[in-house]
Structures are given as structure tokens and as C-alpha cells.
């Protein structure tokens, strides 16, 4: 069952300029066949599986040619759109047509406003399936900005800790209230093999690495900008750790004494339990027999019954009016 944006793209692709096409961060799926389209490549900004026949790159790896058509899938964060345009500018020539495609409910209608100063002639090219595709050209005097990390120093109990993130990464430039609850209540006996799942800016993993003794520290996230931000945060704090770009636990094979997470629960604007459900189900296999999982979540999320399906002991370690911190073993 194809995503509506892909259905619209498939309908429109035959109207594109002849030449090469780059799909930027597409919603890739098994029944979507850009590998059948002549001279089409994919540039992804998160961990995704592709059909081996299609040339694809995952940022910071990048294509080394210019393209005649570039299709950008409208990202969830507006900051990320600006960042994507900056990043892909070097793959364009002056006649490259930029297509931006997305669902109405994701905010695509403000495309012209959001890309002001970067793109010109932003025109609606097609719509259908509750989606719109805009076409545009880069402004002639467009000057791409280099990627800039924002650094912020947070205070946890009495510890000052500096984190870095790129725009579009979760809680860019600030600390999430749930994450703060987790960091303020880390059990004293944390040590050994430690894993930060869905690490974002690397705030949890780097804090653990700085203030707790560890033998192995692993951080993972599905998003390339998040993972790169984590690497930057670790570097700033002089911490040795492994960073994996991984959708869920697909690339994680170690067994840990402790897993910490503030897991994702949104897909677009909808609450989506799927990622957390799959993670709670599968993470047991990545825990040693006495290993513990520490999860922070909005109190309204119905996590306890999900956690109790896979863990014998699920206790609340700390809470605020909005968040709960669970420890599971
Ligand atoms: C609530 S944020 C937490 C980030 C960070 N740990 C913090 O506390 O600030 C959730 C993170 O989950 C990541 N994420 C979303 N879907 C994912 C998936 N399928 N696999 C791994 N990470 C995912 C997002 O990129 C985001 O960085």
C-alpha cells in the first residue's frame, strides 16, 4: 500500500524534465519502484532499506553528480527543510527543477513562505491524495549556509553538561522536560554496558558517559542529523562511544546492562505506539539477564501495560505532573 505522496509522485514523474532525478529523503517502501525509473537516485537522511538496484546514499555520504530534477519530501520540521535545501544545493545546476512534495496536513501549503530567500517561482505543480507537489528553482544569488550546530549547556542536579544539535533534531537548542526527569533520576549503580536508544542530540548517552563508569556505550537513532549531532555532543564532552544509524534495534546486536530511552511516539501529528511497542518487545533480547530498561514518557501514554507484557517488574522511579520515569527488569 503506497504512501499518498508516492502515489502523487508516480502520477507526475512522467512530466519531469528528461535527465537525472534525485529523490531526497523519500518515504521508501517495498511497493514503490523508483529503481524502474531511468537515471533516478535516492539521497536519504535516515536509516532506510532500499532495493539494491537503485543508487542510494545516506547522509553524510552524498551523490557526486548534479541532477536535473530533485524531489524533496517535505520534512516534519521546517528547519530541516532549510537545512536540506542548503545541503543539496551543490547537486544542482542553474536549470535544476526542485520539486517539494508532501501531505496537506504536514504543512506543505506554506512551502513558498518557508523557502523564501532560498527558492523562487514556487508554483503548485500537482495535487491529489491530500498531497501537493510544488516546483521551484533556486534563487540565482542563493548562498548555502554551512551546517551549524547549536550548543547549549544544561544543568542536571549540580552538573553542567554541554550538548550540540542540528536544526530539526528533537528539542534543538533546549532540554526536553521528560529527558530532564530521566537525567535527574539515574540510579546510582549504573555502570557496565550502556545503551541510549533514540538518542537525538545524544543528551542522555553523553551524560551517562560523563558521569557514570561504563565499559561500553552505544547510542542509536534512525535520523542522520540526530546521529551526527550525537557524535558532536560526544566529541564536545570527550566521550568514547559507538553511534549507530538504526531503525529501531535493527543494527544493534550487543547485550546491555542498562538501556535508557525517551522513545518517539509521534509519526507526523498522530500518536503512534508502533515504534515503542516494537522496541519494548525486542529490547529484552539486547538486555543481559539482570539488565534494566529505564524509559521516560508523557504520563498519558499507555506504556505500563505494554512494558508489563515483556518485563516482570515495572516500577515508577520518578514523576512530574506531565512525565513518568519507569524502570523495568
Ligand atoms: C523523543 S526523541 C528523544 C531524543 C533524545 N534521547 C532526548 O531525550 O532528547 C526521540 C528520538 O527518536 C528517534 N526515532 C524516531 N523513530 C525512530 C526509529 N524508528 N528508530 C530509532 N529512533 C527513532 C527520533 O529521531 C528522535 O531523535
User: Within the largest sheet, what's the order of strands?
Assistant: 3-2-1-4-5-7-6
Largest sheet: 7 strands, mixed
Separation of termini?
A: 38 Å
| The CATH top-level class label of the largest domain | Alpha Beta
Which architecture of the largest domain per CATH?
3-Layer(aba) Sandwich
Tally of individual domains: 2
> What small ligands are held by the chains?
S-adenosylmethionine
CATH topology of the largest domain: Rossmann fold
Mean pLDDT over the residues: 94
Total number of helices? 8
Large-scale geometry = elongated
**What is the gyration radius calculated from CA atoms?**
21 Å
- Please tally the β strands and state the result: 18
Task: Provide a concise account of the structure shown.
Helices cover 22% and strands 34% of the residues. The chain has 329 residues and is α/β, with parallel strands linked by helices.
